[in-house]
Amino acid sequence: MNKLELQKKAVAVRKDIVTAVHSAKAGHPGGSLSAADIFTYLYFEEMHIDPANPKWEDRDRFVLSKGHTAPGLYSALAERGYFPVEQLKTLRHIGSILQGHPDMKHIPGVDMSSGSLGQGLSAAVGMALAAKMKGKNYRTYCLCGDGEIQEGQIWEAAMFAGARKLDNLLVIVDNNNLQIDGSVAEVCSPYPIADKFEAFNFHVIEINGNDFDEIHQAFEKAKATKGMPTAIIAHTVKGKGVSFMEDQVGWHGKAPNDEEYEQAMQELEKAGEALC
Amino acid sequence: MLGDKIATRDSYGNALVELGKEHDNLIVLDADLAAATKTGIFKKAFPDRHIDCGIAECNMAGIAAGMSTAGYVPFMSSFAMFAAGRAFEQIRNSIGYPHLNVKIGATHAGISVGEDGATHQCNEDIALMRAIPGMTVINPCDDVEARAAVKAAFDYNGPCYLRFGRLAVPVLNDEETYHFELGKGVELRDGKDITIIATGLCVSESMEAAKLLAADGIEAQVINIHTIKPIDEEIIVAAAKKTGRIFTVEEHSIIGGLGSAVAEVLIEQSPTKMSRIGVRDTFGESGPAKDLLHKYGLDAEGIYNQIKVQL
Question: What is the ipTM, given to two decimal places?
Answer without folding.
Answer: 0.97
